[in-house]
Amino acid sequence: RSFARACYGKRSYSNSNTVFSSSYTVDPQEVRKFQVIGRSWWDEKSSGGTGPLHAMNPIRVGFIREQIAFTTFRSDELKSSQLHDLKILDVGSGGGLLSESLARLGANVTGI
Known about the structure:
Blueprint: H1 3-7, E1 10-15, E2 18-23, H2 28-38, H3 51-71, E3 87-90, H4 97-104, E4 108-111
Parallel strand pairs: 3-4
Antiparallel strand pairs: 1-2
Helix pairs in contact: 3-4
């Protein structure tokens, strides 16, 4: 059974005299699209949708590191240790390119 098929449809179950029903909202076409993208996600030279994200990532990491260093008074520390042991929540992290980069710099990152 495919992932798309498992997630698309309805399921009903009962508890005592009450019947519960839930609908899945996964679109099989979206699953297929992201399966294709997933094959090249970590390829920095990808001409697909992820290439520009990889190109922008160093700029985003630099900006975030500078802002955190300024607001946490870590500007004088080496760049390599400015994020060490900081907890960062990456909301809307998507595939995690930014989260991975921040974690490599020592931050404890949670991406959702």
